[in-house]
What does this fold into?
Amino acid sequence: MKKAGVAVVGYGNIGRCAMESLEHAPDMECVGVVRRSGSAEGISGLSAYRVVTDIGELEGVDVALLCVPSRMVRGTALKCLSRGINTVDCFDIHADVVALRAELAAVAKASGAVGVMAAGWDPGSDSVVRTLFKALAPGGVTYTNFGPGRSMGHTVAARAVKGVKDALSITMPLGNGVHGRLVNVELEDGAVFAEVEEAIKSDPYFASDRTEVREVECVAALNTLEHGVNMVRDGISGCTAGQKFQFDMKINNPALTAQVMVAAARASLLREPGCYTLIEIPPLDLLPGNREALIGELV
Amino acid sequence: MKKAGVAVVGYGNIGRCAMESLEHAPDMECVGVVRRSGSAEGISGLSAYRVVTDIGELEGVDVALLCVPSRMVRGTALKCLSRGINTVDCFDIHADVVALRAELAAVAKASGAVGVMAAGWDPGSDSVVRTLFKALAPGGVTYTNFGPGRSMGHTVAARAVKGVKDALSITMPLGNGVHGRLVNVELEDGAVFAEVEEAIKSDPYFASDRTEVREVECVAALNTLEHGVNMVRDGISGCTAGQKFQFDMKINNPALTAQVMVAAARASLLREPGCYTLIEIPPLDLLPGNREALIGELV
It folds into this structure.
């Protein structure tokens, strides 16, 4: 069976982990990496791959894994989809998912491609669990409690603030789905802390959470990739209250995000043209291998 | 919007709960109940519904919920599917799922109907979680620990044994996916306990588990509908080991089973003809309501 050709677009934490997941996938192979620099210089493990600045330079790309910050997803996805290349992203701005999905779907349908969006762990696999919880007990509330752990999206957003040299945003669960953000910032020379603090607190990524910004000497010394979630639903099935569901995980954040993206890439090859979130995809499509054997094993 | 017409076939614990879930479903309505007796006599809450002995007597049936013991699923499903009626069952003999799915699929495709099978909680919603766990961390083992709680399938199987007047099978989690079965039996007059014990222990439902059979005076006094599961996976995403996932629930067993079946009935209306397990169905299809609104809420 011919392996699906996958391009890794962006080579930060997630891109590196995506490469590792692809190397373990029996049905996919990496056909190249897209980086701004177009070079593998200084990165171990990339020498076996073509590294280019534009995805158009690669051949045999069935799916592009967009391992780029959320704010770069739209432009990158539109470019790939319009060329008929499937895309998978881990876009994580929850409030913008529906609009971006509609925009990507229109372009994908026009070119016969498939986009799978918001395919990390939250949004992503957690969304599948939330959907399942609601189906199992239609009455009730699901609380999603994140962390404590490093939020990659919030860290990238904080780093983009003027005057910030480096940042690390830790998500603190306060219970019942309420979160605090503890943003550690290392300032550039001459930056004013109060201005940086204000810019971070008014950023849409942080505006709705209790955010504390703290100046530190060296962000690198605090680094962690661990994260987790605790989702709880106490709901009603039919007339029966007190149905209790809980989902917990403690994970390495970029490794899980990348693994979900690779699974979504596989599923993208089975969809009609359009754009889908993970809750619109049969879970079985995420796995490689013989479908009947998997049903026998997992059902 | 026209509501989908649903028939409830069988009116034990699950059938009664299915009726409750249907009464809370905004997009479905019960068009009748199929019972061997063809009568609502002695059952409160059924007077508003047509009760018949054969599904052919009902009109407007889009989906039949087969709330019957697993061993009656095959015959009942084939009858409905061959008439072009969608079916949902909660068949729970794991080892026979693949073969029955193939048999039902052939009949369903020939008549343009859809079967959703093994759509309770295990097999069923737990299967979705197992599939998701494997997608999130392809390396590793998932342990499914049931109970303690009453197993409906095992209880029905024990009741069917000659000499058994009433039975209650409790599933005991022994850790790492190993289970014991504690089968409480009330004997018929003249029955020999040792023979009943031997018959239960050699039944395929019990043969692979540590089974203890215990004679009691009155099974009714022990009755419980509570059950639960604890599923654990410690797996590897890409090269990253130590990814930890856990799913827990404490639920009323027939209420949850029935709710899953009603959700699967909804999903059956969106499928191409054939037979599907729950892991072959997009989770979003399990929910009523506007799809974009649900994506905005759940993703």
Notes: The helical segments of chain B are 13-23, 70-82, 97-111, 125-136, 152-159, 193-202, 253-268, 291-298. Chain B is about 30% helix and 30% strand. The CA atoms of residues 141 and 234 of chain B lie 7 Å apart. The mean pLDDT of chain B is 96.
